[in-house]
Specification:
about 425 residues; Aspartate Aminotransferase, domain 2; 2 domains; four-stranded mixed sheet; binds pyridoxal-5'-phosphate
């Protein structure tokens, strides 16, 4: 299709997709049609350029259309894109081996799916079956997906209430509070599930000893520790896995988003060997038609190559330190608007005193060609989550535009 042949996409959304979402996007100034993207830049159908400082909420760690991932996917596309599901599939086997080599500790076996929520669903099912226990403990403000199981362990009521009853035996405790975790985990607990750093909760970095304490509590009570690294994983926070920032090895680790290199959807649930005894009696006790398909696995294999070759975790750490320092300067200059800035690597958040200010800043930034979004479970926080391949120059440009947006917000606010 050529640009000139584009239909009225907004009307099609209104009529066939979700009229309320269409209106919300229009209200936020996001009713433009995305057209093409490369590296850190997205262009809309009118040719306007945007710096992608959101990175698809963690999907575009390699930027858009990384040539190595495109090439790997193209090669696989012309040979065998999807699996027969009858024979062995070599991209899947190679990817599982690579993930086991990369993952910390003795994490070894991999179940492949197509999304973050599916990776979490699998982890919950595996934990119940392996331990024979029912209870899950998770954190308030957490986001693990919107399927029934992943929603049940997520921590924001407005997304949960309309769908009750959800999975039973789920308890949420404040994130970062070791005492509360200690009280909630008992000998009926199958697993504790946590994000090492909460993304949608508002980029919440836990106290230094929190994850180690969670590990110790689980070990003491015979519960599994599941870490959801769907957003934090694969270099985003300055290490390949964020749990490595605190030297903690979970029993199960969930991945998705960036694993597909920004080209293919894929989810992965990686577990310690003992847990895989759940497949002994019935190897098909959990399965997925598209999970582990050759196309997605080829994309992921190329993604892991790029991650190593371009030293993306190290880049994220270095550029993240630079950006956070710049944000701290902005916080001091605009203390009337900004309450806090925080994060690790290139998962950074700006918390505003007022939710409306955050929304206004997001809208001003988008108008000026910088894509950011607020955190789903904490709209006072906007997230900066650019591709890890971004240059320091482009980040400096983002800081400049952010400062001009803050000044303009100050100008329109009542004094
Ligand atoms: N887990 C975390 C930590 C996430 O951030 C997300 C999505 O934002 C999910 C799970 C769900 O992933 P998906 O939207 O691919 O189902």
């Amino acid at each position: 299709m050529k640009r000139e042949e584009l239909p009225d996409v907004f009307s099609l959304y209104k009529r066939y997709i979700n009229p309320y979402l269409a209106d919300l996007l229009r209200f936020a100034g996001c009713d433009r049609v995305e057209w093409e993207a490369e590296g850190c830049i997205i262009k809309d159908s009118e040719g306007k350029e945007y710096i992608d400082c959101l990175g698809g909420y963690g999907v575009f760690s390699l930027g858009h259309r990384h040539p190595k991932v495109v090439k790997a996917v193209e090669e696989q596309l012309h040979r065998m894109p999807l699996s027969s599901k009858i024979f062995l599939n070599s991209p899947q086997a190679k990817l599982a081996e690579r993930l086991a080599q990369l993952a910390p500790g003795d994490l070894q076996y991999v179940f492949f799916s197509n999304s973050g929520a599916e990776a979490v669903e699998a982890s919950l099912k595996f934990a119940r079956m392996f331990t024979g226990r029912k209870k899950f403990v998770s954190a308030l403000g957490s986001f693990h997906g919107k399927t029934f199981g992943s929603l049940s362990v997520s921590g924001r009521d407005i997304y949960k209430k309309p769908f009750e009853p959800l999975l039973g035996h789920c308890e949420q405790v404040p994130f970062g509070d070791g005492e509360a975790l200690e009280k909630a985990v008992d000998d009926s607990t199958a697993a504790v599930i946590l994000e090492p750093i909460q993304g949608e909760g508002g980029v919440n970095v836990p106290p230094e000893d929190y994850l180690r304490r969670a590990r110790a509590i689980c070990d003491e009570r015979g519960a599994l520790l599941i870490l959801d690294e769907v957003q934090t994983g694969l270099g985003r926070c300055g290490r390949i896995f964020a749990c490595q920032l605190w030297d903690v090895v979970p029993d199960i680790l969930c991945l998705a988003k960036a694993l597909g290199g920004g080209i293919m959807p894929i989810g992965a649930t990686i577990a310690r060997p003992k847990i895989w005894t759940i497949f002994q009696e019935n190897p098909l006790i959990h399965s997925s038609t598209f999970g582990g398909n050759p196309l997605a696995c080829s994309a992921a294999l190329a993604t892991l190559d790029v991650l190593e070759e371009e030293k993306l975790p190290e880049r994220a750490e270095e550029l993240g330190n630079y950006l956070l320092a710049e944000l701290q300067i902005l916080k001091e200059k605009h203390a009337n608007l900004i309450k806090d800035v925080r994060g690790k690597g290139l998962l950074l958040g700006i918390e505003f005193w007022e939710e409306d200010v955050g929304l206004l800043v997001v809208s001003f930034l988008i108008q000026r060609g910088v894509l950011v979004a607020y955190a789903l479970n904490n709209p006072k926080v906007i997230r900066l989550e650019p591709p890890l391949i971004i240059s320091k120059e482009l980040l400096a440009r983002v800081v400049e535009i952010l400062e001009s947006a803050l000044k303009d917000v100050e100008a329109v606010l009542p004094t």
